[in-house]
Specification:
Radius of gyration: 14 Å
Oligomer: single chain
Distance between the termini: 24 Å
Number of domains: 1
Order of helices and strands: HHHHH
Helix content: over 70%
Shape: elongated
Largest sheet: none
Structural class: mainly alpha
Strand content: under 5%
C-alpha cells in the first residue's frame, strides 16, 4: 500500500475521527463512535481505499518537496 494520505489530511482525519467518537459518546450513539474509527485508521496508516479508487494521492507534493530538500 503506497501512501495516498498527506500529512495535513492525516491530522484532519485523526481529529475528525476523535470528534466523531466524542460526539458518539456524548449522545450515546455507538454507530457514530464506531464510524469514527474509520478516519482514525486511514489517517494512521496513511492509505485510504476511497482515495485510491478515485486516483487521488495527497503524498505526491510531499514526495516532490522531499526530493528537493536532499
Amino acid at each position: 500500500m503506497e501512501c495516498n494520505v498527506g500529512l495535513v489530511e492525516q491530522k484532519a482525519r485523526v481529529a475528525a475521527g476523535l470528534a466523531m467518537i466524542g460526539v458518539g459518546a456524548y449522545y450515546n450513539s455507538k454507530p457514530l463512535a464506531l464510524l469514527g474509527l474509520v478516519p482514525i485508521v486511514t489517517g494512521m496508516v496513511r492509505w485510504c481505499p476511497i482515495n485510491a479508487a478515485i486516483g487521488y494521492n495527497g503524498c505526491e507534493n510531499e514526495q516532490e518537496m522531499n526530493r528537493y530538500r536532499k
